[in-house]
């Protein structure tokens, strides 16, 4: 006989956080949102972008990591495209760029211009047989008059170049970049071989983005999704080769035998493994016992998701987070291993983010929220939308700037590997396709939203996310209380 549980599937919007006393210690500027993404790794901003083609590309992953969060590149992309995006993020910024693009002294300036146009770089070390012989920047030549000249005729030769020795510290190298006045410092070994380059633009960014989520070499971090299908081992190999930092084993339902086999296989890559999705405590323990480093929670909560209508499976996101947070804490007291939990889907406002953290999430993954930013991979469009005219009973149309947003289980995507299908003919559609309003650039909007989250913590009188979770007092609200929290004037 089917069992009816006495828990209720609740969503974030059903909760209100009661204010506490704000102290000097918990004034908004003193509050920190640092969290953990694995037992050993901290993340400055615990926000992850969804592994969806309409959400995360390399540009969004770069901007998000600069601000301290983490982009998850979708596993529904062809392997070479996903790996190429990992490469772009890892190359974007670095203290020591070990794989900087170089040119030969005998290349033509016209070839240099092509490289510039294609890759966007404007400074190149000049190398012959592995040895540094000079450096060329766009300020040294005229793009038309000098096009047929060879690079050696326009480069700064090694004899007049400031270089760093292999083994120099990043701080010393940064001082030398400024001393050189040309924005780049080639690092060479005793034999004169080029080992790496330190760029001024990176130094500037380290200052502008002090909270960036970076690896030991100061390169931005990035994650990429793989599935339980055995063919994705080759995908993981390609991602790891390009330097991916986290593998995300991404399935709509990871409480399965396939998960067990896949987790064992992915261990060989020695990369932290984030795994999901699941919605109850048995499934959390199953994944934690298999040794995953972070567990992702959510079934049916996504803004584009129809799973609960199509299959009647899933769980209210707030209840799932609340229950699994307790399981995480007891797993920690039993094993001394902290397996952070990431709440995936169902965030409709910054208030929802605050509730998710207050209920125990260590991290939040969002799709719709990120899809509306300029940095998301889809094109910006202007479209007419039907609206009920204010104060009248008519319908009118307004033009709005939007970006396309669709589910990975929509008819458009049919991501067979995430949804455990053999082929697309028998695919059960569990998602829709639509648009989200364009919100402008993440570089200006995200810091503002983080401030709102810090505001909730400060109002409760808590300085860290852990304190917030352990001390926040919440109440379930009625639908009319929720409505009261909205606005009721004619706009
Ligand atoms: P959102 O932040 O509410 O838009 O939810 C994003 C999350 O929805 C993703 O991270 C996925 O876990 C989930 N998701 C993505 N595509 C689909 C779909 O087509 N159907 C159901 N869930 C989806």
Structural account:
The chain is of the alpha/beta class. The chain contains 15 helices and 21 strands. Helix content is 31%, strand content 20%. The relative contact order is 0.16.
Q: Which class do the helix and strand fractions yield?
A: alpha/beta
Question: How are the strands of the largest sheet arranged?
Answer: 4-5-12-13-14-15-16-17
From the N-terminal CA to the C-terminal CA, the straight-line distance is 53 Å
Task: Provide the CATH topology of the largest domain.
Answer: TIM Barrel
In terms of per-residue confidence, which ranges show pLDDT below 50 for 5 or more consecutive residues? none
Strand fraction equals 15-25%
Highest-level CATH class of the largest domain: Alpha Beta
List the ions, cofactors and other small molecules found in this model: inosinic acid
CATH H level of the largest domain: which superfamily?
Aldolase class I
**How many β strands by DSSP?**
21
Please tell me the CATH architecture of the largest domain by its name. Alpha-Beta Barrel
Taking all Cα atoms into account, the compactness measure Rg is 25 Å
Helix content: 25-40%
Largest sheet: 8 strands, parallel, barrel
The total tally of domains equals 2
Using the alpha-carbon principal axes, give the shape. globular
């Amino acid at each position: 006989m089917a069992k009816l549980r006495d828990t209720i599937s609740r969503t974030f919007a059903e909760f209100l956080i009661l204010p506490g006393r704000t102290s000097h210690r918990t004034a908004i500027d003193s509050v920190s949102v640092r969290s953990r993404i694995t037992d050993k790794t901290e993340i400055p901003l615990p926000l992850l972008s969804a592994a969806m083609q309409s959400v995360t590309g390399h540009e969004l992953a770069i901007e998000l990591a600069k601000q301290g969060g983490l982009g998850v590149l979708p596993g529904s992309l062809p392997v070479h495209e996903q790996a190429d995006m990992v490469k772009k993020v890892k190359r974007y910024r670095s203290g020591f760029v070990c794989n900087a693009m170089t040119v030969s002294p005998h290349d033509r300036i016209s070839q240099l211009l092509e490289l510039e146009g294609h890759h966007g770089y404007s400074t190149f070390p000049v190398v012959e047989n592995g040895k540094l012989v000079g450096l060329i920047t766009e300020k040294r030549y005229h793009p038309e008059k000098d096009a047929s000249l060879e690079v050696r005729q326009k480069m700064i030769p090694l004899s007049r170049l400031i270089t760093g020795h292999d083994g120099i510290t990043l701080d010393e190298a940064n001082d030398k970049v400024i001393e050189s006045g040309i924005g780049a410092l080639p690092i060479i070994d005793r034999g004169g071989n080029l080992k790496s380059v330190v760029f001024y633009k990176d130094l500037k960014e380290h200052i502008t983005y002090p909270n960036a989520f970076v690896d030991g070499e100061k390169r931005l971090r990035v994650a990429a999704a793989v599935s339980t299908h055995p063919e994705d081992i080759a995908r993981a190999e390609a991602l790891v080769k390009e330097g991916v930092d986290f593998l995300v084993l991404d399935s709509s339902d990871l409480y399965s035998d396939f998960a067990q086999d896949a987790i064992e296989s992915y261990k060989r890559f020695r990369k932290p493994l984030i795994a999901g999705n699941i919605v109850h405590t048995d499934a959390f323990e199953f994944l934690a016992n298999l040794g995953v480093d972070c567990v992702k929670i959510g079934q049916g909560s996504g803004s584009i998701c129809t799973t609960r209508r199509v299959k009647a499976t899933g769980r209210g996101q707030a209840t799932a987070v609340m229950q699994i947070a307790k399981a995480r804490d007891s797993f920690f007291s039993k094993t001394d291993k902290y397996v952070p939990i990431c709440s995936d889907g169902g965030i409709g406002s910054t208030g929802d983010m605050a509730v998710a953290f207050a209920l125990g999430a260590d991290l939040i993954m969002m799709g719709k929220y990120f899809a509306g930013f300029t940095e998301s991979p889809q094109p910006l469009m202007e479209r007419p939308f039907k609206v009920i005219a204010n104060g009248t009973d008519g319908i009118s149309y307004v033009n709005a700037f939007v970006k396309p947003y669709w589910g990975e289980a929509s008819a458009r995507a049919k991501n067979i590997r995430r949804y455990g299908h053999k082929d697309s003919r028998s695919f059960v559609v569990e998602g829709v396709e639509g648009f989200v309003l364009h919100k402008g650039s993440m570089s200006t909007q995200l810091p503002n939203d983080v401030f709102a989250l810090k505001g909730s913590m400060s109002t409760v009188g808590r300085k860290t996310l852990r304190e917030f979770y352990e001390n926040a007092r919440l109440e379930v609200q009625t639908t009319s209380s929720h409505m009261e929290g909205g606005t009721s004037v004619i706009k």
